[in-house]
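haha ok so turns out i had the wrong file open the whole time. this is the CORRECT one, sorry everyone. sequence first:
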Amino acid sequence: MTAPAVEVALDAANVLGEGILWCERAQALYWTDIQRATLFRLRPADGVLAQWTLPERLASFALCEDEGWLLLALASRLAFFRLADGALRPLHAVEPGLPTRCNDGACDRQGRFVFGTLHEPAAGSPRQRLGGFWRLDAGLRLERLPLPAVAISNSLAFSPDGATLYFCDSSTRRIHCCDYGDTLGPPRPFADLGEVSGEPDGSCVDAEGCLWNAQWGLGRVVRYGPDGAVRTVVPVPARQPTRPAFGGPALDTLYLTSARDGLDPAQLRGDPLAGALFRWRPGVAGLPEPRFAGRPG
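then structure:
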């Protein structure tokens, strides 16, 4: 597939744009700037942008079956959030007592929220594999999944039939997958970036079952076939892309968040679109975003 042209959808200047999702009911994009603890919503049809400031950093989130609610993976806890008035209903603390925070997350095809954590080391200390992967079911029960501990959880996505889970520890530069259901199969290698100065970040899956992965530090999004073979490499005009998501009325536009986190002034001058929201037409369509089946009560 020929790499399509990428354009700026919004010069958002996010510090750490992440977690992007398309809501077909609102015909809008939602995403977070983690470091600024801010949730954004953009309606591409009319350009209307809304934002909400949250009490702590928002890492990822899920749309809910209940209209007007989101399930949030805040830095330290899970909570329901009502868009109309900003009401927050806490659910569970996540890894209390550990120097970790929530990170990437996605709903499975059964409406359960699967998310991971990352280690936040003290200044000057190395990252360690202290984080894990978790699942919140419709009954609001939280369980740790039997997957290896990670330093930086990422790339959480599900095959169209829901029978395969994709995930990674970004620090290893490798994406894995496993058979997925009420129980999980053993992890197996899916894609290896090799010895590069970048990492796999967030992912999404298209209607053909291919995985689109944003690659931090490499300024590109890569489409992998279900067999892990590279199908397309899409250069993007920011060195730190973070997560793609299909959107638009026909789910045929790919949107992408990015970050300027960690870039010094000289690097930012050479990367002026760092933190922008991008879009392009990849020539394939995505899938409707699964919604969390649990209810706020």
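The chain has a mean pLDDT of 97.
again sry for the mixup
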